[in-house]
């Protein structure tokens, strides 16, 4: 599907690579990792309440106490996995460094999924619903922290987090690693991206969790304050699901001789929450009015990818991720990155791939409105042109709200503005021409009359 993104294992040599050079690079990475982890261990020792009575060792309490708020439970889980699930109350510098190196070498997302599944399950072979919900909430909190965004959550986020867990388990009460990986592959392949980004930043930066700075991101404040249909929690899980075509990737990222920096850049390529700040609100039924006319006015002429959110009866919330602009057509359109995602009451990718969208306004051979789904047999959503009802699998429901976000960055938005300005000028030009014709009053001298007559068209009542 369009959102698959399998990263190569960076700790494996290329078949044609020089083995000595590769081994030297690995030794350099290990040396840098050891230095960073050792420095972090020393900083952790300094946080002990009554000094460290056991130099070279760190108590469980000291380790866990540096994790605050929603991250406190993660600190407990991290300590447990670092001591291999034993009951030890202290961890040595050597154990800490070894465990840290193991995490830092996990660049492949499949390896990360296995590691964090084991962490959140407490070392068990299965995950229960309570642990899964905790995993979702912590993953969200860590992603915000790694993105330097202040923590925020409202009741709508809680509902979406519950929807994610419901989707993972279905009717089951426990989830195996294999079932979890299968769910991630289709529904949320980059779920642990923000988690690993945060862990990598802490371990390699020799930084305590409390030392990570956060600052409001002006472009994301509306999501934080709950002004939109989309919340920050929804934005997070969607950013871990949708293809990279919906997030703007900074260009010109230079490589470095520092293996630590190159490793960080590799991880950052998948950390995309902050890149959603390039999104722009094109249409909101709450702000602009809920009608096809207003939708058309605000959405057309935008050629970049869009995210369209539909809220309707039955706690349903859907997202139409279109990798192209909306346009009127009598045939299905949409590229390989298109997705139809249900956020509530169950979070899941319903369909993905080409030719999922249809918007008919004029053809009498097709229903007038917007259709989402791969053909009539797989149609999931149909939005009639009156914009007050929506058909969900053929069942009519009351439509509550619509939002459309442009994901093409400033360039796509500016192109839409320029196109709209040209269309307005063209309309005014035609209206002015008609107005001048009406006000002229001297039809006999009008040049248009001569042109019509030269074409053999009668222009007077006597000739008709």
TrEMBL record:
<feature type="domain" description="TLDc">
    <location>
        <begin position="254"/>
        <end position="408"/>
    </location>
</feature>
<feature type="region of interest" description="Disordered">
    <location>
        <begin position="439"/>
        <end position="464"/>
    </location>
</feature>
<feature type="region of interest" description="Disordered">
    <location>
        <begin position="1"/>
        <end position="23"/>
    </location>
</feature>
<dbReference type="Pfam" id="PF07534">
    <property type="entry name" value="TLD"/>
</dbReference>
<dbReference type="InterPro" id="IPR006571">
    <property type="entry name" value="TLDc_dom"/>
</dbReference>
<protein>
    <recommendedName>
        <fullName>TLDc domain-containing protein</fullName>
    </recommendedName>
</protein>
